[in-house]
Amino acid sequence: MSETLTFPHLGLGTVYLRGEEGAGIVDSAIEAGYRLIDTAYNYENEGAVGLGIRRALARTGVEREEIIVSTKLAGRYHERPLADRAIEESAARLGHGAIDLLLIHWPNPKQGHFTEAWAAMLDARERGLVKHLGVSNFLPEHIEELHSVSAELPEVNQLEIHPMFPQDEAVAWHQDHGIAVESWSPLGRGELLNHPTLRALAEEHHTGVAELILAWHHTRGLIPLPRTSHPERLRDNFEAARVTLDDTTVATISGISEGHPHRLWDQDPAEYEEF
């Protein structure tokens, strides 16, 4: 097993960032200080992400070893040997040798093959195709099943987390088990940027609402993955860790979900499947 990953305070989400535009955003993000770039087989942009990284490395002097590139295994490839070929394809499209961090995108529990996918990932690590392993959208019971068949826990779980869905209990479970937590859709797809409570708190802290929310993730020990197609937003998001929040402010932000916490698209990992 490789040395445990040390995660930066946030990463770049790349869903919908494709082609030259996507490569340009990745290039600009690395120049702005980002060292974690998140993609997925199903985002159809592993090639653009790899291209953007290569351009940034050639232009900025950043070393490849400084960057963590994560991608995700799609649900239609959980079964062996489909998983083996899909992992090889992801590595080839990214074009940087071994994948730094590979996640299972969704558990797809009705299909019941995610332990096969995990076995394929463990083998891929032995073959030198992958350095670190994790999951995405897994519930604790799914992770315990992986642990029962491999005696190994994933290093990270990527979960939907934002102020309308803070997932306090899940976050505590993962932190108790030494599993890092990444937040997808950390800004709630922009739905929260005009929330009156958040606007008032942002004004009080002399920052923007997006930066306030990202600071909320950071203060809770989470690794948010905001996506933006606007280069000027990259640095604002990156600098959000400088915003200091006390426990009362963190609780107030989490409290806006009280009574009606909700996922953005009703994607409950116990039922939802993505292929």
Topology:
Layout: E1 12-13, H1 19-32, E2 36-38, H2 46-60, E3 68-73, H3 82-94, E4 99-104, H4 114-126, E5 130-136, H5 140-150, E6 156-160, H6 168-176, E7 180-184, H7 196-204, H8 209-219, E8 223-224, H9 231-238, H10 247-255
Parallel strand pairs: 1-2, 2-3, 3-4, 4-5, 5-6, 6-7, 7-8
Helix pairs in contact: 1-2, 1-9, 3-4, 4-5, 7-8
Q: What would your notes on this structure say?
A:
The chain has 275 residues and is of the alpha/beta class. It has a domain at 12-191 and 222-229: NADP-dependent oxidoreductase domain (TIM Barrel). It contains 10 helices and 8 strands. An 8-stranded parallel β-sheet has the order 1-2-3-4-5-6-7-8. The radius of gyration is 18 Å and the shape is globular. It starts with 11 loop residues before the first strand and ends in a 20-residue tail after the last helix.
State the gist of this model:
This protein is an alpha/beta fold. It contains 10 helices and 8 strands. It is globular.
Q: Work out the radius of gyration.
A: 18 Å
Terminal residue distance: 28 Å
Morphology call: globular
Q: Please name the fourth-level CATH homologous superfamily of the domain at 12-191 and 222-229.
A: NADP-dependent oxidoreductase domain
Helical stretch tally: 10
Series of H and E elements: EHEHEHEHEHEHEHHEHH
The level-1 CATH class of the domain at 12-191 and 222-229? Alpha Beta
The CATH architecture category of the domain at 12-191 and 222-229 equals Alpha-Beta Barrel
> What percent of the residues sit in helical stretches (DSSP H or I)?
40-55%
Oligomer type:
single chain
**How is the biggest beta sheet arranged?**
8 strands, parallel
GO molecular function, one term: oxidoreductase activity, acting on the CH-OH group of donors, NAD or NADP as acceptor
Family: Belongs to the aldo/keto reductase family.
Keywords: NADP, Oxidoreductase
Protein name: Aldo/keto reductase
